[in-house]
Write a structure and sequence with these properties.
Shape: rod-shaped
Structural class: mainly alpha
Distance between the termini: 22 Å
Keywords: Signal
Strand content: under 5%
Number of domains: 1
Number of strands: 0
Helix content: over 70%
Protein name: DUF5667 domain-containing protein
Largest sheet: none
Radius of gyration: 33 Å
Number of helices: 7
Organism: Candidatus Brennerbacteria bacterium RIFOXYD1_FULL_41_16
Order of helices and strands: HHHHHHH
Length: 269
Amino acid sequence: MIQLNFKQIVVFVLVFVFSVSVFSSLTSAATSTPGFRENICSRLTNFISKMEVRVSEKEQRIRGRHQDGIEKRGEKLEAWDARREERRASANEKMTDFFLKFEQRAQTDIQKQAVAVFKAAVLAAIQTRQAVVDAAIVSFRSEAEKLLAERKSVAETAVAVYKVSQKAAFDKARSSCESGVDPKTVLETLKTELKAAKDKFEVDRQAIEIVASKIRALNETKKAAFDKAHGDFKVALEKAKLDLKAAFPQPTLTPAISQTTTPTLSPTP
């Protein structure tokens, strides 16, 4: 299943970071507004508390959407598998009718044998293709789940480290204010430490992109397996058609064979 929406995580994490304009206004007020020096720490503490509440609420909303996403993805996969089986069943019915028409056309023992060989070859080709496709799907989903779990772990670790650094910066700012440190120094120090935490988070986040590239590579591997399975099936089908033609008079069989397209004889993979 798809795990966490990491772009949303980044958004809610970065909401914590004070903008340059906020720092500039507070710093300016701390140095130029009469009486503001005395209550700057109180205002800073209130501002930090409000930001923490906002981010906590946003985090809860994101996790709620994340859980909904997991459930919806599971439902989509189940629906996709069901549609695939339905298409295969429908194609199997058409294929049975197709084989029946050829069996009815067969007059001699040689022709009957040729139809039997043709039918066996086509069924074997279909089964082989479906087996390859199904195996590719199972492998992709299994490996993708592992990578998604890894990505989730990497992202959550990066977020946790960021939040710890951020909290330390906030706690230090509060403590400095209570200790009588100049408000301008408190704000500038907080700004510097939050930027360092953000920069560290951005570096850690690169590991998430590496995992994402692995998932894309998995998808390409699955697609390559699909393409090869389809290609091998077409080759086997064409050979079976040529062998069948040899046992029947051309005017009788050629039209029917020419209409034997891959979709007709191949249940959806």
